[in-house]
Amino acid sequence: MDSLAAVPGTGPATSPLPPVRTVRAPKAFSDLPADRAVVMAILNVTPDSFSDGGEHIDREAAIAHGLKLHYGGADIIDIGGESTRPGHTPVSPEEEQARILPVIEALVKAGALISVDTMHVATARAALDAGAAIVNDVSGQNYEPGMPELVAERKVPYILMHSRGSASNEDPNARYDDVVAEVLAELAALRDRFVAAGVAPEQIILDPGLGFSKTGEHNWALLRALPQLTGLGHKVLVGASRKRFLGSLLSVDGRLPAPKERDEATLAVTALSAGNGAWGVRVHDAGPNLDAVKVAAAWAG
Ligand code: PMM
Question: CB neighbours (10 Å) of residue 201?
Answer without folding.
Answer: 12
